[in-house]
Amino acid sequence: MFRKLYLSPFGIFISLILRMIAVFYKNFMVYGFSNKVDGKFYKRTRIASDVKLIFKNKIDIKDNVWVGYHCLLDGIGGITIEKGVNIASHCCVYSHSSQNSIRLLGEKFIEIPAEDRIGYILEPVKIGEYTFVGTSSVILPGTTIGRACVVGAGSVVKGAFPDYSIIVGNPATIVGDTRKVDEKLFQEGIEFKHYYDKSLLEGFNKN
Questions:
Q1: Is domain 47-192+199-206 annotated with CATH 2.160.10.10?
Q2: Sheet holding 138-139, edge to edge
């Protein structure tokens, strides 16, 4: 009943009420996200009430995204999370780092605006559609992860990773291809009625 009501035109008001309740109540999943980057409301996106969004106006989250409990999204350098992404609990996504500037600036660090700090790293992060990020993973500034990737639990990810990558470790490396995983499931008879990319099914059928 709640799901039907939420998906009706009243959904945006329900989301606002849930956000207000989240301030006073224990952690729970909040449906709906007001995207400050494109000005749209994404009804099917779900973000846990305790997720910390820093510089929300620079965090571009699309529809059907799920962000689990105790996550941190640092948007100061810009974050793009495309549709269908799942981010498990206890993950951090960073788009800045002061690892060098704190030494270079010493006591003056706090007095200088972030964009003017010597050695300050300010680089955007992008996570492609239908990618899964496993629990306790850390995604570092300047990282681009392609569509339909899987990031293994506890991975520390830095760099550019192409579509369909299976990414594991610290530092994270590519260890596989999600298309091969899906093709095996297809051959085993798993139902692909709602598969995210119908064009890939043609290739599976030919093999």
A1: yes
A2: 52-54, 72-74, 92-93, 138-139, 156-157
Query: Among candidates 128, 170, 124, which has minimal Cα distance to 150?
Result: 128
| Domain residue limits, the chain | 47-192+199-206
CB 161 within 8 A of CB 174: yes
Question: Cβ of 120: how many Cβ atoms within 10 Å?
Answer: 21
Q: How far apart are CA 125 and CA 115, in angstroms?
A: 17
Name the pTM for this structure: 0.88
> pLDDT tens per residue, the chain (207 residues)?
666 777 778 778 888 887 777 777 778 899 999 999 999 999 999 999 999 999 999 999 999 999 999 999 999 999 999 999 999 999 999 999 999 999 999 999 989 988 899 999 999 999 999 999 999 999 999 999 999 999 999 999 999 999 999 999 999 999 999 999 999 999 999 999 999 999 998 888 876
